[in-house]
Design brief:
Distance between the termini: 45 Å
Order of helices and strands: HHHHHHHHHHHHH
Mean pLDDT: 98
Number of strands: 0
Low-confidence stretches: none
Radius of gyration: 18 Å
Bound molecules: iron/sulfur cluster
Number of helices: 13
Helix content: 55-70%
Strand content: under 5%
Shape: globular
Oligomer: single chain
Structural class: mainly alpha
Length: 283
């Protein structure tokens, strides 16, 4: 399935993109449209509930390498970014630290990258509290994730962190763009810009624990999603179409050595400091 085909169908049939995505799901899997929408609503409610529960909290993570970042960000008055970015960053850190603390998260698209989509969902919710509009946009983000999972991969062990954080940022960029414009083509450009910006990102968790660099990557990636969406909404287009970007990402992932695909053997996981920290860990 091409995301571009879904956008084309929505334009030709003059129907909203989220409806076309739900119908595609029905045609492919036989799941009734209302049932898929209900399932997505349940997931969205879980994100909002957990977002409220953990927002800016100190959390006790498995290794102690993280757990204070959301709290620090919440207690800091930003100097550069907007209030929306700040909310999304605190939420992203909260979700990612909750994952590291074995809390409840929505693995959207994965557990390690759970903070990107969820962080932006929670920030949008706190801004407008418009559930139906958020749900429509969440479904469009799901369409982006579905295409990536079929054409490439969402797993860090298979494609590196570009497949996890990169996919999360692409989904979130499309979600934001749909939320504000309802324009499918702009969503595809936003997702392509975000994914290209994170292409090649390696998976290198220190000690194999999903804490360092994962937690902070979630928070930086929300800003990439926001910037990509703003560019697309300004009319900036990705020269390479989204579906081709996804195929390229899959190829890059397959070219990555095993040491950079969730084995904890390369990248920052192989630095002297990482090794020293691991030696001192008492688990
Ligand atoms: S570094 Fe690896 S484990 Fe951590 S978020 Fe990225 S893909 Fe997931």
């Amino acid at each position: 399935m091409n995301f571009g085909d879904l956008v084309k169908r929505s334009e030709e049939e003059k129907r909203p993109l989220h409806e076309v995505i739900l119908e595609e799901e029905y045609e492919e899997l036989g799941v009734p449209v209302e049932l898929t929408r209900k399932g997505a609503a349940k997931i969205l409610r879980a994100i909002i509930r957990e977002g409220a529960r953990n927002f800016g909290k100190k959390q006790k993570t498995l290794t102690g390498m993280t757990g204070m970042n959301a709290w620090k960000m919440k207690n800091y008055k930003q100097k550069l970014i907007s209030e929306f970015n700040r909310m999304a960053m605190i939420s992203a850190l909260s979700f990612a630290e909750s994952n590291a603390a074995m809390g409840r998260i929505v693995a959207c698209p994965t557990a390690g990258a759970c903070g990107v989509m969820s962080g932006i969902v929670y920030a949008l919710w706190k801004k407008d509290e418009n559930f139906d509009k958020l749900l429509d946009s969440f479904i469009v983000a799901g369409g982006i994730g579905d295409v990536i999972s079929k054409k490439a991969t969402l797993a860090g062990a298979e494609g590196g962190c570009q497949a996890e954080i990169g996919s999360g940022a692409a989904m979130a960029a499309a979600m934001l763009t749909y939320y504000y414009t309802g324009d499918g083509e702009k969503c595809a450009h936003a997702a392509a810009i975000a994914l290209k910006s994170l292409m090649g990102l390696v998976c290198d968790p220190v000690g194999g624990f999903v804490e360092v660099p994962c937690v902070k990557r979630n928070a930086t990636a929300v800003n990439i999603a926001i910037a990509s969406s703003e560019m697309a909404m300004a009319g900036i287009e990705s020269v390479i179409p989204f579906d081709e970007v996804v195929e390229a990402m899959g190829k890059v992932g397959r070219a990555l050595p095993e040491s950079l695909r969730e084995t904890g053997k390369g990248g920052i996981a192989a630095t002297p400091t990482a090794k020293r920290i691991l030696k001192g860990l008492k688990l």
